[in-house]
Amino acid sequence: MRDNKNTKEIHLASGAEERFLDLFIDVFGPEKTDKLLIQYGVNDIYGGRRYIDFAIVTENNKVAVEIDGEGVHEPGKVSHEKYYDDLLKQNSLIYDNWKLFRWTDGQLKRYPDKVKDEMYTFLSDYLAEKSRSDIEKIEPKGVTFELRDYQEDAINSLRKLRKEGNTIALLYHATGIGKTVTAVEDAKSYGKRTLFIAHTKELVKQAAIKFKELWPEVSCGIYMGDCKDKESYVVCASVQSISSNLDEFSKDDFKYIVVDEAHHGTAETYKKIFEYFDADFTLGLTATPERADGEDVLKLFKNIAHKVDLETAVKKNYLSEIRCIRIKTDIDISNVRIHGINYDQKDLESKLFVPQRNNVIVDTYIKYVKGKRTVVFCASVHNAEEIAMLFRENGVSAEAVSGSLKQQKRDKILNDYEEGKIEVLCACDLLNEGWDSPKTEVLFMARPTMSKVIYLQQLGRGTRKAEGKDCLLVFDFIDNANMFNMPLSCHRVFNLENYVPGALILGHGNRKFKEADFLRRGEKPVELIDMPVNVLDYEHVDLFNWNEEAKKMISQNGFVRMVNKQSGTISSYIKNGKIKPDLIVPCGSKSFNYFKEETVKFYAEEFGWTLITNENIKDMFIEFVKKMDMAYSYKPVLLKAMLSECDEKGVAAVEDIIDYFIDFYGDRKSRGLQAEKKKSIYNNDEIDRKAIQKNIFSNPFGKYEEMNFMERCNDIEYVRFNKFVWKKLSREEKVEIDRICDEKLSSYYRE
């Protein structure tokens, strides 16, 4: 047994706790007492120190066990203060994601057998998980190996970038070719204290193992969950843990930062970390630099230090060749709504979760690849469970795996799959990142997606090479869809217009070219001889991809930013047919409009609108201020706040803007003046900063942003003037704008 201070001698606080321990040993054996933390210290929500009788802390769960005297929690038998204090402790534990179990001394004495049954039911799964100390026991193997040529090239490129004064870069390498190894070797050659961050515990643990193997000369620890090693030379941390505990570190603790799956790096939690640490160099790792929300990863990472995409990696024989068979279903998803490039989940479920489609999936496996290690990507947890059950009913060993499973069960399923005890994994999202299996020979793309990121992540689960593995065979399940909500497939991802069943999508060297020559002669390549496909069946694939088309165009919001008219005017002209978009993308009950640049210029000239450029935007801004329309007082207040709080670059902290609004309307109320219209939040007695922030960004800021006069910085905590506006504003013009705002406010309040 251990307490949370690692002392060897344990003194239990009461006889009741001794009785609990005796029963615990009867159930689990004395060796499991090592999992119990005695009198484990925690803080309540007010920072008060509390102690749990027994705690079990694993990499995934925190379990509290409390042993009480009879009536200790009954309000009639203890003081109200004691009762309420105990409720605070219990609620604080639950708030902090602890699972809480209680037994009383009387139960332990009178019903020991029943308590032991309950112990087994409630605690056995948690005791089977890896404890906090187990995570810390990752030992280095001290392996030696040779870097591949592209890894050496990448490290040389990174050194060159640093020599040129760059402080951030992106390593774009396909899944399975050793991005982490390259990062470890570069960090090792740089030789300064290193922080590795990732968004899943699997990625964090994998990185810790790799650092310990390849850089055994320094200490390496994990900072994640309840394992908080912040003193090691290399710290591998989850982004969630590090971002919420930045005050535990000094700004100069780490001089080299590695960000795994860097396409997540534009999220605010990552930006918070980058802003905090004063690192010499930050390296992003990704196999999929595109982001589902369209935000450009290169805005943050600026330089691609080295690139080996999937197509290159396969061609150079680093990864398995990829073949594809398209399986058409009679499921119609043409009316499924989309949000951005994501399908509406409820719409999708109503279409996909039908027995016919599940039967097609199982029948395809039995017909084409029975006995091969296969991953089926499903649309939901329920869908995965249904398909796995159908596989088992047809004599195929299969299991569903998802994030909803407990860690112990999930690990067992994945281990059984690796050992060949399970033939088919039915997965939902869980396997997109942080897991791959070189022994996987087949992928079933049965989850429709319009996201290239998700599709390539799924593809990457099976691209690693393995002994006896000829290729990765991908089955694309093609549901009926319209041109705007067509899901991705191998052919659309790699821009292949002609489909031949089973033919190479990506091949080593020039093998794809040679195979195509075989097919042109009407001959069947040897790799396809045993496959029940007709290689003479050619099919043309419609490659229209509105996402790619839209990237080259200007959105309706972009149109508004280019001319001296507000969004209402543009919307009205489109609705009345005066303006015709070049591309209309339906999205449920809405649609999104896109325009070519020459189209915007044409309509600007036709309607006599001024095009806003970097040269004239300052003058347009001043004109906008002079003609400012006001349903509320917010626009001039925001302008005054920005002018008051901006630094020399025109950047202001959101919190400072909120303070200005609070002070402005508070001052009016203190002088007995009207703050705002009756329903305004500024009339309330209590200050709600979140509500004020929401008001600022949804109301006045939105209008300035719409006209491109203001924008949010990459870090959400700051806003700024358009740099071409701010740079050209003279001191006299700023004073004049402030005066106009005062005049507008005086007129608004009729003062």
From TrEMBL:
Domain of life from the UniProt record: Bacteria
S-adenosyl-L-methionine keyword on record: no
Keywords, alphabetical: ATP-binding, Helicase, Hydrolase, Nucleotide-binding
Gene Ontology CC terms: cytosol
The Helicase C-terminal domain, residue ranges: 361-507
An example molecular function term from Gene Ontology annotations: helicase activity
Gene3D superfamilies, per the entry: P-loop containing nucleotide triphosphate hydrolases
SUPFAM superfamilies in the cross-refs: P-loop containing nucleoside triphosphate hydrolases (SSF52540)
One Pfam family, short name: Helicase_C
Helicase ATP-binding domain ranges (all copies): 160-307
SMART domains documented for this protein: DEXDc, HELICc
InterPro entries: Helicase/UvrB_N, Helicase_ATP-bd, Helicase_C-like, Helicase_Restrict-Modif_Enz, P-loop_NTPase
Name by which UniProt lists this protein: DEAD/DEAH box helicase
Lineage, highest ranks first: Bacteria, Bacillati, Bacillota, Clostridia, Eubacteriales
